[in-house]
Each structure stands twice: as structure tokens, then as C-alpha cells.
Write a structure and sequence with these properties.
Helix content is about 15%, strand content about 30%. It has about 325 residues and is of the alpha+beta class.
């Protein structure tokens, strides 16, 4: 059953208020359940005075506020919610906790992603129990896969919630935590090998020197994706990025300068710049660290907030980032 009576919902607005008052709290946490998820919130359930069995609990959270504290520009996606139970040290206990997300009447995914997360305390509860609430945004590179995992996990909305009161049960909400940057976001069985690519020298391709060789280095805004990609490009190629524009225009602007570009998803090589466009927005770029037969391993900046460097594995079958950023192509190293 759905739990809708607001008098029975345990709120912890103090934790969220502290996050707002004291600024961003971005913790890279250990014991990450699944590296495909980027964010989690620790939940501690304090038991009632008497032993409880299969009791439902609920906590109201505004994910717009939570994501703002993490400096994320992403939009909360409710279907990516997962609750897993852990022990006091963070070790996994149960990854299949029934849950339901009840949208607030004035819910808005971008401005006010507020609602009530309801989940089940399976079995007997006599001592404090610990849970992690995982979720994602529309910027997740593998968002479609996350939604599929959710549907196939046998965790369905409102699944068998007992009709018992929640009086005396307290849910403490912790600070938002982010996936550790060093956690591999690709299958452990995958072995990456740098692909050796040979091309004729630029002079052999052009009768005259290309115009970019005489242009000064372009300066990009520090902390953004273009700034990071330009620095990685220079480190690998020994020459600066000379084209201009936001991330979504890099592919076309580099092509206009005579750079080697490709729209083939499997043309990626180490040292390339990967480009995405977004309708009505600035687009995005990332640096290709490695390639194998299954996909591309990238590093990028500002995908989860300014100055934040993150990594991701993108399969060749879906190189789009979420639903809004469309793969445009690669700017290949010289």
C-alpha cells in the first residue's frame, strides 16, 4: 500500500538545512554498491521501543536541494532510486529493498524535485539499521541501463507495504556522497589497450600548412569541460587547442580548421576529444583515455560540477550522455 498520511512521515529537515547553510558537502565515500550510480544519501533508522517486523518507513527529501549542494547541474530521475541495506561499516547486507517514491503535489524535476521515499524494513528491527539511498540524474552516461536495472530488480513501486503505523520510528538523513573517482566504471573483466593509429603527416595531406598552425592558443573558462579537454589535448599532442567555441561546437570548428575528425562511433583512439551536442545548450566534450572492442573510457570535467573530474565507460552501442547530449563525433589526435 502507499503511505500518504503526512503525519506519519518522519522528516529530517535539519540535515538538509545544514547542507544549505554551510554550503556544498561533497564526500567521496567508500564501499560503493554499484559504480554506475553517482550519488547516494546515507539513512539511519532508529528503532521503536518495541520490536518491529516488516515495518515501512518514509522520509521526505528535496533532491533539487541535495543536488545543488553537490554542485550538480543534472536533473533528478526518480526511476533511478535504489535503497540498499548496509551494516555499520558500510558493507552490503541486502540490495533488494522494496521502495516507492511519492511525488510532492508541487513536484518539478528541475526546480523542486521533492517527494517521499518509502521503503520496507525487512524482517525484525530491534537495533539501529543503516541504508544507502542511491540515485542518478539525466546526465548519467548509462541512464537507460540504470532504468532497466531498476525494472528488472523485482523492486517495484509500493510493493507489499504493510499497513502499520510508523510512530516512534526515526529516519536520520545523512549528507550526500558521490562515487569515488577512482572506482572503475567499466567491467573489471575488460582489458583496455591503447590502439596504435598511423596516419600520414599533415604536410602530406595538405599542400600548404593548415591555418590552425599559425593561430594562437584559445583560452577557455577554467573549471569547465572545454578547459579540461584543452589541457589534456595539449599534454597528449604537444600542441594547444586553437579552435574556439563551447563544447558542442568543437567538432565543427575543429573540422573547419582542417583537423582530423570522425563521426564513426568506433573511430575513437587514445588522445581524441569526444564531442556531444545539446539542443539549445552548450554541449559537452571529454578526453578519451582508452578504447577497447566494447567501448570508450573517458575522463571529463564539469559533468558533476565545476572543477570536478570524473570518469565513465561508454559502450559503442550508446555513446549519448543521458537523453539530452547527443554524440557528435571525435576530434582525432594529430
Amino acid at each position: 500500500m502507499r503511505i500518504t498520511d503526512p503525519r506519519k512521515i518522519v522528516r529530517n529537515t535539519l540535515s538538509l538545512l545544514l547542507l544549505v547553510l554551510y554550503g556544498p558537502v561533497i564526500l567521496a565515500a567508500p564501499n560503493w554498491w554499484n559504480p554506475n550510480w553517482s550519488y547516494r544519501i546515507p539513512l539511519t533508522v532508529e528503532p521503536a521501543n518495541t520490536e518491529q517486523y516488516n515495518r515501512p518507513v518514509a522520509v521526505e527529501i528535496n533532491f533539487s536541494i541535495v543536488l545543488k549542494t553537490a554542485r550538480s547541474r543534472g536533473v533528478f530521475v526518480s526511476n533511478t532510486l535504489r535503497v540498499v541495506e548496509v551494516n555499520s561499516t558500510g558493507g552490503l547486507v541486502d540490495e533488494k529493498i522494496p521502495l516507492y517514491f511519492d511525488f510532492a503535489p508541487d513536484y518539478h524535476a528541475t526546480r523542486n524535485a521533492q517527494g517521499t521515499v518509502q521503503f520496507l524494513l525487512k524482517g525484525s528491527t530491534v537495533n539501529a539499521r543503516h541504508f544507502h539511498l542511491y540515485f542518478e540524474t539525466n546526465e548519467a552516461p548509462n541512464l537507460t541501463n540504470l532504468l532497466a536495472v531498476y525494472r528488472l530488480s523485482e523492486i517495484q513501486q509500493g510493493a507489499e507495504m504493510p499497513s502499520q503505523t510508523m510512530d516512534q520510528i526515526v529516519v536520520n538523513v545523512g549528507q550526500i556522497e558521490t562515487r569515488p573517482l577512482k572506482v572503475a566504471s567499466r567491467p573489471r573483466s575488460v582489458t583496455f589497450e591503447n590502439i596504435v593509429r598511423t596516419t600520414p603527416a599533415t604536410a602530406e595531406l595538405n599542400a600548404t600548412e593548415p591555418i590552425w598552425k599559425s593561430k594562437p592558443e584559445h583560452q577557455f573558462f577554467p573549471g569547465y569541460c572545454t578547459w579540461y579537454a584543452a589541457r589534456k589535448w595539449k599534454e597528449f599532442n604537444g600542441a594547444p587547442v586553437t579552435w574556439s567555441g563551447d563544447g558542442g561546437r568543437w567538432f565543427d570548428n575543429a573540422a573547419e580548421e582542417g583537423r582530423n575528425v570522425s563521426e564513426d562511433p568506433k573511430a575513437a583512439v587514445k588522445g581524441a576529444i569526444m564531442v556531444w551536442t545539446r539542443r539549445g545548450s552548450a554541449g559537452h566534450v571529454a578526453y578519451v583515455e582508452a578504447v577497447n572492442d566494447e567501448g570508450v573510457f573517458i575522463t571529463e570535467m564539469n559533468a558533476r560540477g565545476r572543477w570536478m573530474i570524473s570518469d565513465a565507460f561508454l559502450p559503442f552501442t550508446n555513446l549519448d550522455k543521458g537523453t539530452k547530449y547527443k554524440f557528435r563525433g571525435y576530434i582525432l589526435p594529430e
